[in-house]
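ingest -> fold -> write
write: protein_1
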Amino acid sequence: MLGLDLSTGVDGVVEKLEKLPKDLFAETLQSILVNLWDQNGAVDLIESCDKFQRAGISLDQKTVQDIMRLMSYYFRLAAKSNLSGDVLVSKLTECSSNWSKPTLQLVHQLWTEHAALLHAHQEVLTMASIGQLVDIQWKLGMAVSSDTCRSLNSPFISVLMKIADTSGEMSYKSFEMTVQQFQNFYRQFKEMASVLETV
Protein backbone atom coordinates (compact mmCIF):
# COMPACT_ATOMS: atom_id res chain seq x y z
CA MET A 1 0.00 0.00 0.00
CA LEU A 2 2.71 2.53 0.96
CA GLY A 3 5.69 0.85 -0.62
CA LEU A 4 6.88 0.02 2.89
CA ASP A 5 7.99 -3.44 3.94
CA LEU A 6 6.50 -3.63 7.44
CA SER A 7 6.28 -6.99 9.21
CA THR A 8 2.94 -6.27 10.95
CA GLY A 9 1.31 -3.68 8.70
CA VAL A 10 0.84 -0.01 9.52
CA ASP A 11 -1.81 -0.61 12.21
CA GLY A 12 0.45 -3.11 13.99
CA VAL A 13 3.41 -0.73 13.92
CA VAL A 14 1.29 2.15 15.23
CA GLU A 15 -0.03 -0.06 18.06
CA LYS A 16 3.56 -0.85 19.09
CA LEU A 17 4.80 2.73 18.94
CA GLU A 18 1.78 3.93 20.92
CA LYS A 19 3.06 1.80 23.83
CA LEU A 20 6.36 3.71 23.92
CA PRO A 21 6.85 6.40 26.56
CA LYS A 22 6.42 9.79 24.87
CA ASP A 23 9.93 10.98 25.77
CA LEU A 24 11.47 7.87 24.21
CA PHE A 25 9.30 8.22 21.10
CA ALA A 26 10.26 11.91 20.87
CA GLU A 27 13.95 10.95 21.08
CA THR A 28 13.42 8.36 18.32
CA LEU A 29 11.69 10.92 16.09
CA GLN A 30 14.51 13.41 16.74
CA SER A 31 17.12 10.88 15.61
CA ILE A 32 15.12 10.18 12.43
CA LEU A 33 14.81 13.90 11.68
CA VAL A 34 18.52 14.48 12.29
CA ASN A 35 19.33 11.55 10.01
CA LEU A 36 17.13 12.96 7.23
CA TRP A 37 18.85 16.33 7.47
CA ASP A 38 22.35 14.91 7.89
CA GLN A 39 22.02 12.24 5.16
CA ASN A 40 24.61 10.16 6.99
CA GLY A 41 23.09 6.80 6.16
CA ALA A 42 20.56 5.13 8.40
CA VAL A 43 19.46 5.60 11.97
CA ASP A 44 21.47 3.18 14.09
CA LEU A 45 19.02 0.34 14.67
CA ILE A 46 21.16 -1.43 17.29
CA GLU A 47 21.59 1.79 19.27
CA SER A 48 17.82 2.40 19.15
CA CYS A 49 17.10 -1.17 20.33
CA ASP A 50 19.58 -0.65 23.18
CA LYS A 51 17.82 2.59 24.19
CA PHE A 52 14.50 0.78 24.30
CA GLN A 53 16.02 -2.06 26.35
CA ARG A 54 17.55 0.40 28.86
CA ALA A 55 14.14 2.06 29.21
CA GLY A 56 12.59 -1.33 30.01
CA ILE A 57 10.78 -1.63 26.67
CA SER A 58 11.20 -5.06 25.10
CA LEU A 59 10.66 -4.75 21.36
CA ASP A 60 12.32 -7.05 18.88
CA GLN A 61 14.67 -5.59 16.31
CA LYS A 62 12.15 -6.03 13.48
CA THR A 63 9.52 -3.97 15.33
CA VAL A 64 12.01 -1.17 16.05
CA GLN A 65 13.01 -1.24 12.38
CA ASP A 66 9.35 -1.02 11.33
CA ILE A 67 8.81 2.03 13.56
CA MET A 68 11.88 3.70 12.04
CA ARG A 69 10.78 2.88 8.49
CA LEU A 70 7.24 4.15 9.00
CA MET A 71 8.25 7.47 10.52
CA SER A 72 11.17 7.98 8.10
CA TYR A 73 8.81 7.37 5.19
CA TYR A 74 6.33 10.01 6.37
CA PHE A 75 8.99 12.57 7.34
CA ARG A 76 10.69 12.10 3.95
CA LEU A 77 7.34 12.45 2.18
CA ALA A 78 6.56 15.60 4.17
CA ALA A 79 9.99 17.09 3.37
CA LYS A 80 9.78 16.37 -0.36
CA SER A 81 6.19 17.66 -0.61
CA ASN A 82 6.71 20.61 1.77
CA LEU A 83 3.81 19.45 3.96
CA SER A 84 2.67 21.38 7.01
CA GLY A 85 2.36 19.69 10.38
CA ASP A 86 -1.42 19.53 9.95
CA VAL A 87 -1.18 17.82 6.57
CA LEU A 88 1.42 15.37 7.88
CA VAL A 89 -0.88 14.45 10.79
CA SER A 90 -3.73 14.05 8.31
CA LYS A 91 -1.61 11.65 6.21
CA LEU A 92 -0.77 9.64 9.33
CA THR A 93 -4.43 9.31 10.34
CA GLU A 94 -5.30 8.20 6.79
CA CYS A 95 -2.92 5.25 7.06
CA SER A 96 -4.09 4.13 10.52
CA SER A 97 -6.81 4.97 13.01
CA ASN A 98 -4.67 3.70 15.92
CA TRP A 99 -2.82 6.99 16.49
CA SER A 100 -3.50 8.69 19.83
CA LYS A 101 -3.98 12.44 20.00
CA PRO A 102 -0.85 13.00 22.19
CA THR A 103 1.32 11.04 19.73
CA LEU A 104 0.00 13.02 16.76
CA GLN A 105 0.57 16.27 18.68
CA LEU A 106 4.16 15.22 19.35
CA VAL A 107 4.74 14.40 15.66
CA HIS A 108 3.12 17.73 14.70
CA GLN A 109 5.30 19.68 17.15
CA LEU A 110 8.57 18.05 16.09
CA TRP A 111 7.74 18.34 12.40
CA THR A 112 6.82 22.02 12.79
CA GLU A 113 10.18 22.65 14.52
CA HIS A 114 12.21 20.87 11.82
CA ALA A 115 10.15 21.23 8.62
CA ALA A 116 11.66 24.45 7.28
CA LEU A 117 15.22 23.20 7.71
CA LEU A 118 14.48 19.81 6.15
CA HIS A 119 12.57 21.31 3.25
CA ALA A 120 15.37 23.82 2.53
CA HIS A 121 17.90 20.98 2.69
CA GLN A 122 15.76 18.89 0.32
CA GLU A 123 15.54 21.81 -2.14
CA VAL A 124 19.30 22.30 -2.10
CA LEU A 125 19.85 18.60 -2.77
CA THR A 126 17.33 18.61 -5.59
CA MET A 127 18.71 21.82 -7.11
CA ALA A 128 22.30 20.72 -6.85
CA SER A 129 21.38 17.13 -7.66
CA ILE A 130 24.18 15.96 -5.41
CA GLY A 131 24.61 12.23 -5.24
CA GLN A 132 26.21 10.26 -2.46
CA LEU A 133 29.08 7.84 -3.03
CA VAL A 134 27.93 4.48 -1.67
CA ASP A 135 30.75 2.19 -2.77
CA ILE A 136 33.92 2.27 -4.86
CA GLN A 137 35.64 -0.77 -6.34
CA TRP A 138 38.84 -0.87 -8.33
CA LYS A 139 41.15 -3.32 -9.97
CA LEU A 140 44.52 -3.22 -11.64
CA GLY A 141 44.59 -4.55 -15.17
CA MET A 142 47.00 -5.01 -18.05
CA ALA A 143 46.04 -4.15 -21.61
CA VAL A 144 46.86 -7.19 -23.78
CA SER A 145 44.93 -6.28 -26.92
CA SER A 146 43.90 -2.94 -28.32
CA ASP A 147 42.86 -1.07 -31.43
CA THR A 148 45.91 1.09 -30.89
CA CYS A 149 49.03 -1.03 -30.50
CA ARG A 150 50.94 1.62 -28.53
CA SER A 151 48.95 0.87 -25.36
CA LEU A 152 49.64 -2.87 -25.30
CA ASN A 153 51.15 -4.32 -22.12
CA SER A 154 50.32 -1.11 -20.24
CA PRO A 155 48.90 -1.28 -16.73
CA PHE A 156 45.62 0.53 -16.04
CA ILE A 157 43.29 1.01 -13.11
CA SER A 158 39.59 0.28 -13.62
CA VAL A 159 37.20 2.02 -11.16
CA LEU A 160 33.50 1.31 -10.53
CA MET A 161 31.57 3.75 -8.32
CA LYS A 162 28.10 3.11 -6.91
CA ILE A 163 26.26 6.41 -6.43
CA ALA A 164 22.88 7.12 -4.80
CA ASP A 165 21.15 10.15 -6.29
CA THR A 166 18.89 12.44 -4.24
CA SER A 167 15.86 10.21 -4.81
CA GLY A 168 17.73 7.14 -3.53
CA GLU A 169 18.14 5.56 -6.99
CA MET A 170 21.45 3.76 -7.44
CA SER A 171 23.62 4.33 -10.48
CA TYR A 172 27.02 3.05 -11.46
CA LYS A 173 29.85 5.01 -13.05
CA SER A 174 32.96 3.34 -14.33
CA PHE A 175 36.17 4.64 -15.84
CA GLU A 176 39.74 3.60 -16.50
CA MET A 177 42.95 5.47 -15.73
CA THR A 178 46.54 5.08 -16.74
CA VAL A 179 49.06 4.77 -13.93
CA GLN A 180 50.01 8.44 -14.38
CA GLN A 181 46.34 9.52 -14.21
CA PHE A 182 45.87 7.38 -11.11
CA GLN A 183 48.89 8.97 -9.41
CA ASN A 184 47.41 12.42 -10.09
CA PHE A 185 44.03 11.21 -8.79
CA TYR A 186 45.74 9.90 -5.65
CA ARG A 187 47.58 13.23 -5.09
CA GLN A 188 44.29 15.13 -5.32
CA PHE A 189 42.61 12.83 -2.80
CA LYS A 190 45.61 13.17 -0.50
CA GLU A 191 45.25 16.98 -0.72
CA MET A 192 41.54 16.74 0.11
CA ALA A 193 42.31 14.51 3.11
CA SER A 194 44.89 16.98 4.47
CA VAL A 195 42.44 19.89 4.06
CA LEU A 196 39.72 17.90 5.86
CA GLU A 197 42.09 17.29 8.77
CA THR A 198 42.36 21.04 9.33
CA VAL A 199 38.59 21.51 9.54
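write: protein_2
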Amino acid sequence: MTILENKHNPSGSTGGGGGGGKGWGIFKLPFKNNNNNNNNHISSTAKTTSSYSSYHIEGSSNNNYIQNNNNNNNSSSTSSVTSVARSLLPTRRRLRLDPPNKLYFPYEPGKQVQSAIKIKNTSKSYVAFKFQTTAPKSCFMRPPGAILAPGESIIATVFKFVEPPENNEKPMDQKRKVKFKIMSLKVKGVMDYVPELFDEHKDEVAVEQIMQVVFLDVEHPSPTSSF
Protein backbone atom coordinates (compact mmCIF):
# COMPACT_ATOMS: atom_id res chain seq x y z
CA MET A 1 0.00 0.00 0.00
CA THR A 2 1.42 3.39 -1.01
CA ILE A 3 0.60 6.54 0.98
CA LEU A 4 1.38 9.83 -0.69
CA GLU A 5 0.32 12.29 1.97
CA ASN A 6 -1.20 12.56 5.39
CA LYS A 7 -4.23 14.89 5.68
CA HIS A 8 -6.07 15.47 8.89
CA ASN A 9 -9.91 15.74 8.71
CA PRO A 10 -10.93 18.45 11.13
CA SER A 11 -14.60 17.40 11.02
CA GLY A 12 -13.69 14.00 12.39
CA SER A 13 -15.74 12.22 9.63
CA THR A 14 -15.45 8.54 9.27
CA GLY A 15 -15.17 8.60 5.50
CA GLY A 16 -12.40 7.34 3.26
CA GLY A 17 -10.11 10.29 4.12
CA GLY A 18 -10.74 9.80 7.80
CA GLY A 19 -10.15 6.09 7.43
CA GLY A 20 -6.90 6.89 5.63
CA GLY A 21 -5.84 9.25 8.43
CA LYS A 22 -6.80 6.75 11.06
CA GLY A 23 -4.95 4.01 9.27
CA TRP A 24 -1.83 6.21 8.96
CA GLY A 25 -2.05 7.01 12.64
CA ILE A 26 -2.17 3.31 13.48
CA PHE A 27 1.02 2.64 11.56
CA LYS A 28 2.70 5.83 12.75
CA LEU A 29 2.80 5.03 16.47
CA PRO A 30 4.72 1.79 16.26
CA PHE A 31 7.41 3.39 14.08
CA LYS A 32 7.72 6.25 16.53
CA ASN A 33 8.11 3.89 19.43
CA ASN A 34 10.61 1.86 17.45
CA ASN A 35 12.60 5.01 16.79
CA ASN A 36 12.55 5.87 20.47
CA ASN A 37 13.50 2.34 21.39
CA ASN A 38 16.30 2.40 18.84
CA ASN A 39 17.50 5.74 20.16
CA ASN A 40 17.34 4.43 23.72
CA HIS A 41 19.17 1.29 22.66
CA ILE A 42 21.85 3.30 20.84
CA SER A 43 22.23 5.65 23.84
CA SER A 44 22.42 2.72 26.21
CA THR A 45 24.97 1.00 23.97
CA ALA A 46 27.04 4.17 23.79
CA LYS A 47 27.02 4.51 27.57
CA THR A 48 27.97 0.88 27.96
CA THR A 49 30.75 1.25 25.41
CA SER A 50 31.98 4.41 27.14
CA SER A 51 31.89 2.69 30.51
CA TYR A 52 33.70 -0.33 29.11
CA SER A 53 36.31 1.92 27.48
CA SER A 54 36.80 3.78 30.76
CA TYR A 55 37.03 0.50 32.66
CA HIS A 56 39.41 -0.88 30.05
CA ILE A 57 41.68 2.17 30.31
CA GLU A 58 41.56 2.14 34.09
CA GLY A 59 42.11 -1.60 34.12
CA SER A 60 45.10 -1.21 31.80
CA SER A 61 46.58 1.42 34.10
CA ASN A 62 46.07 -0.83 37.09
CA ASN A 63 47.61 -3.74 35.21
CA ASN A 64 50.62 -1.60 34.29
CA TYR A 65 50.95 -0.46 37.90
CA ILE A 66 50.74 -4.05 39.15
CA GLN A 67 53.23 -5.20 36.51
CA ASN A 68 55.68 -2.43 37.45
CA ASN A 69 55.34 -3.32 41.12
CA ASN A 70 55.92 -6.97 40.29
CA ASN A 71 59.03 -6.06 38.30
CA ASN A 72 60.33 -3.96 41.19
CA ASN A 73 59.57 -6.74 43.66
CA ASN A 74 61.29 -9.26 41.40
CA SER A 75 64.37 -7.02 41.19
CA SER A 76 64.45 -6.60 44.97
CA SER A 77 63.96 -10.32 45.47
CA THR A 78 66.73 -11.11 43.00
CA SER A 79 69.07 -8.67 44.75
CA SER A 80 68.22 -10.15 48.15
CA VAL A 81 68.73 -13.69 46.89
CA THR A 82 72.08 -12.70 45.39
CA SER A 83 73.19 -11.15 48.68
CA VAL A 84 72.13 -14.20 50.64
CA ALA A 85 73.85 -16.51 48.16
CA ARG A 86 77.08 -14.54 48.47
CA SER A 87 76.93 -14.63 52.25
CA LEU A 88 76.56 -18.43 52.12
CA LEU A 89 79.61 -18.91 49.94
CA PRO A 90 82.71 -20.06 51.83
CA THR A 91 85.28 -17.36 52.47
CA ARG A 92 88.44 -17.78 50.42
CA ARG A 93 91.37 -18.39 52.74
CA ARG A 94 94.30 -16.00 52.62
CA LEU A 95 96.35 -17.72 55.30
CA ARG A 96 97.50 -21.25 56.01
CA LEU A 97 97.74 -22.18 59.67
CA ASP A 98 99.82 -24.96 61.18
CA PRO A 99 98.32 -26.50 63.25
CA PRO A 100 95.18 -25.71 61.24
CA ASN A 101 92.48 -25.43 63.92
CA LYS A 102 93.86 -26.28 67.38
CA LEU A 103 96.27 -24.80 69.92
CA TYR A 104 98.06 -27.31 72.14
CA PHE A 105 98.98 -26.27 75.69
CA PRO A 106 100.59 -28.33 78.49
CA TYR A 107 98.18 -28.62 81.38
CA GLU A 108 100.00 -27.00 84.29
CA PRO A 109 97.52 -25.29 86.62
CA GLY A 110 98.77 -22.02 88.10
CA LYS A 111 101.40 -21.52 85.41
CA GLN A 112 101.71 -19.62 82.15
CA VAL A 113 102.10 -22.00 79.24
CA GLN A 114 102.63 -21.40 75.53
CA SER A 115 101.82 -22.81 72.12
CA ALA A 116 103.34 -22.06 68.71
CA ILE A 117 101.48 -21.59 65.43
CA LYS A 118 102.86 -21.04 61.93
CA ILE A 119 101.01 -18.50 59.77
CA LYS A 120 101.67 -18.30 56.02
CA ASN A 121 100.25 -15.93 53.43
CA THR A 122 99.07 -18.11 50.53
CA SER A 123 97.45 -15.30 48.52
CA LYS A 124 98.94 -13.07 45.81
CA SER A 125 98.43 -9.91 47.83
CA TYR A 126 99.79 -8.43 51.03
CA VAL A 127 97.73 -9.62 53.97
CA ALA A 128 97.43 -8.37 57.52
CA PHE A 129 96.49 -10.81 60.28
CA LYS A 130 95.22 -10.22 63.77
CA PHE A 131 94.80 -12.39 66.85
CA GLN A 132 91.75 -12.19 69.11
CA THR A 133 90.72 -14.04 72.25
CA THR A 134 87.77 -14.10 74.62
CA ALA A 135 90.20 -13.97 77.58
CA PRO A 136 92.59 -11.06 76.88
CA LYS A 137 93.72 -10.89 80.54
CA SER A 138 95.04 -14.45 80.59
CA CYS A 139 95.87 -15.01 76.90
CA PHE A 140 97.89 -13.10 74.31
CA MET A 141 99.94 -13.65 71.16
CA ARG A 142 103.39 -12.45 70.13
CA PRO A 143 103.28 -10.81 67.71
CA PRO A 144 99.57 -9.89 68.08
CA GLY A 145 99.43 -9.13 64.36
CA ALA A 146 101.54 -8.37 61.32
CA ILE A 147 101.53 -7.81 57.56
CA LEU A 148 102.78 -10.65 55.40
CA ALA A 149 103.98 -10.43 51.81
CA PRO A 150 102.76 -13.05 49.32
CA GLY A 151 104.30 -16.40 50.29
CA GLU A 152 105.76 -15.04 53.54
CA SER A 153 105.32 -16.95 56.79
CA ILE A 154 105.81 -16.27 60.48
CA ILE A 155 105.78 -18.32 63.68
CA ALA A 156 103.67 -16.73 66.41
CA THR A 157 103.53 -17.77 70.04
CA VAL A 158 100.33 -17.88 72.06
CA PHE A 159 100.66 -17.50 75.85
CA LYS A 160 97.98 -18.68 78.25
CA PHE A 161 97.70 -18.75 82.01
CA VAL A 162 96.17 -22.02 83.19
CA GLU A 163 93.92 -21.34 86.12
CA PRO A 164 93.79 -23.86 88.98
CA PRO A 165 90.61 -25.94 88.89
CA GLU A 166 87.75 -24.85 91.12
CA ASN A 167 85.27 -27.24 92.75
CA ASN A 168 86.67 -30.28 90.98
CA GLU A 169 86.57 -28.48 87.63
CA LYS A 170 87.83 -30.56 84.75
CA PRO A 171 90.30 -29.35 82.11
CA MET A 172 87.57 -29.93 79.50
CA ASP A 173 85.33 -27.38 81.23
CA GLN A 174 88.14 -24.85 81.49
CA LYS A 175 89.22 -24.96 77.88
CA ARG A 176 85.67 -24.34 76.66
CA LYS A 177 85.74 -20.91 78.27
CA VAL A 178 88.52 -19.59 76.04
CA LYS A 179 88.35 -19.09 72.28
CA PHE A 180 91.01 -17.88 69.88
CA LYS A 181 90.38 -16.31 66.49
CA ILE A 182 92.71 -15.50 63.60
CA MET A 183 91.46 -12.77 61.23
CA SER A 184 92.89 -11.51 57.93
CA LEU A 185 92.66 -8.36 55.85
CA LYS A 186 93.91 -7.71 52.33
CA VAL A 187 96.07 -4.55 52.15
CA LYS A 188 97.49 -2.58 49.24
CA GLY A 189 101.18 -3.13 49.89
CA VAL A 190 104.04 -2.64 52.31
CA MET A 191 102.97 -0.65 55.36
CA ASP A 192 103.30 -0.59 59.11
CA TYR A 193 100.91 -2.85 60.98
CA VAL A 194 98.39 -1.11 63.23
CA PRO A 195 95.33 -2.81 64.80
CA GLU A 196 93.13 0.07 63.64
CA LEU A 197 93.31 -1.30 60.07
CA PHE A 198 90.73 -3.93 61.01
CA ASP A 199 88.39 -1.29 62.46
CA GLU A 200 88.66 0.94 59.40
CA HIS A 201 87.89 -1.90 56.95
CA LYS A 202 85.42 -4.06 58.86
CA ASP A 203 83.56 -5.14 55.71
CA GLU A 204 86.73 -6.62 54.20
CA VAL A 205 87.86 -8.57 57.26
CA ALA A 206 87.72 -12.36 57.01
CA VAL A 207 87.75 -14.85 59.86
CA GLU A 208 90.43 -17.37 58.94
CA GLN A 209 89.90 -19.79 61.79
CA ILE A 210 88.49 -20.16 65.29
CA MET A 211 91.07 -22.17 67.20
CA GLN A 212 90.22 -24.79 69.79
CA VAL A 213 92.21 -25.25 72.98
CA VAL A 214 93.70 -28.67 73.66
CA PHE A 215 95.41 -29.41 76.99
CA LEU A 216 98.20 -31.99 76.94
CA ASP A 217 99.27 -34.27 79.74
CA VAL A 218 102.65 -33.01 80.95
CA GLU A 219 104.02 -36.51 81.35
CA HIS A 220 102.88 -37.48 77.83
CA PRO A 221 102.76 -34.25 75.78
CA SER A 222 101.08 -35.50 72.60
CA PRO A 223 97.65 -34.86 71.04
CA THR A 224 96.67 -38.48 71.71
CA SER A 225 97.04 -37.93 75.46
CA SER A 226 95.11 -34.67 75.60
CA PHE A 227 92.45 -33.89 78.17
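write: annotation protein_2
The CA atoms of residues 165 and 174 lie 8 Å apart.
DSSP finds three helices and nine strands in the chain.
pipeline exit 0
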